[in-house]
Write a structure and sequence with these properties.
The complex is a heterodimer of chains A (about 230) and B (about 220).
Chain A: H1 8-14, E1 22-25, H2 35-44, E2 49-52, H3 64-68, E3 72-77, H4 84-91, E4 96-99, H5 102-114, E5 119-121, E6 135-138, E7 141-146, E8 151-162, E9 167-168, H6 177-181, E10 184-195, E11 214-217
Parallel strand pairs in A: 1-2, 1-8, 2-3, 3-4, 8-10, 10-11
Antiparallel strand pairs in A: 5-7, 6-7, 8-9
Chain B: H1 6-15, E1 23-26, H2 30-33, E2 45-48, E3 52-55, E4 78-84, H3 87-95, E5 101-105, E6 108-110, E7 115-116, H4 131-137, E8 140-144, E9 156-157, E10 172-174, E11 178-183, E12 188-194, H5 200-206, E13 211-213
Parallel strand pairs in B: 1-2, 1-5, 5-8, 6-9, 8-10, 12-13
Antiparallel strand pairs in B: 2-3, 3-4, 6-7, 10-11, 11-12
Helix pairs in contact in B: 3-4
Amino acid sequence: MDKSVASAAEALEKAGVKDGITLLVGGFGLCGIPENLILALRETGAKDLTVVSNNAGVDDFGLGLLLQTRQIRKMVSSYVGENKLFEQLYLSGELELEFVPQGTLAERCRAGGAGIGGFYTPTGYGTPVAEGKETREIDGKMYVLEMPIRGDVALVKAHTGDKHGNLVYRMTARNFNQPMATAAAVTIAEVEELVEPGSLDPDQIHTPSIFVKHILKGAHYEKRIEQRTTR
Amino acid sequence: MKSGSSRERLAERAAKELRDGFYVNLGIGIPTLVANYVPDGMNVILHSENGLLGIGPFPHDDEVDPDLINAGKQTITTVTGASYFDSAASFGMIRGGHIDLAILGALEVSQSGDIANWMVPGKMVKGMGGAMDLVAGAKRVVAVMTHTDKSGASKLLKECELPLTGKRCIDLVITEKAVFEVDKAANRLILIELMPEVTLEEIAASTAADYVVDLK
């Protein structure tokens, strides 16, 4: 079962990326983002996109590139403070924004991928994020009902993958890639190392192949660092 | 480590809340500095909500790795015995009550333990990140903040005025003037410590929340 494709562009074409779809994009800050797929998505020109991603990149890297080209209509994120262009577009009304607490965002994706119709979380009870949502008391504690998220297409990045689509992440680059990989109709994974099936230890696989539709070796990795901090 | 600045003194005091064997999440800013004051011989494992237990020191130049960052997006290292996991598992640890202690910054704290720290209406909103999950889920939540805002107004209030991050979730507040426990049942603070050279009169003049004095 060879799911490998030659390029990010080919993967996006096969996935049927077009105007108006909802994309789940993995990464935390610039760590573990599918940078080759984001570049290829820019080239497709697909617009009016809803993008679910913890952050919005920086002005000139990651999802910031798709803000520059005005391809994103709505972002669903927990934190967007690193992006000045985001602020401009939001204040001018060109960009919609839904803030979701980080843990709720991860769990909504996990639920979406696991066939869960919603869940009660204590997060956000009594705050603006609970407004308009069902709440209930369970064992003396208050909870907020949150709904699953599913995407049309998920773009994730792993360190190593095999041609069946099994994925192994590296260090803190796993983050949202793992839950998001499960939560879309079509998941595309880009990897730094693409290996033959059998090369990965089945005991060490983080995302099993069933969740991945297309896999490609990224053509180039910049892996930009947002806050280089040394001692 | 010299405890020169006010930021450092706050971090040093907050470190006294650490206990051997604790799993701890430190917020961005002053709370991050708490890591510098873990007492010798005490084992504390630091949690980073982007998917790591066992944060180590900042790396040397030749150790910097773009795949290894903390929740503030800073490059870091790990300690022996560290583990990595995804964001859903990470917040499962938080909401599931597995994190013993969270220390975070605040804009306002109320006498019932409400906290506001993510949004100022009219200003650009950056987002709550993981703060709402941390205050709702950690076993014990400590807020570290300046006692008053830039205009001199108390940040310890009867009720928070800013949009909340969480309700009735703060257990202890540490400012540059004093330390307060939150008595949620009685809906008031308990002043348990004064910082050096701070007087009860000064606290009374700069604190809007109801509190009782029970210095330890």
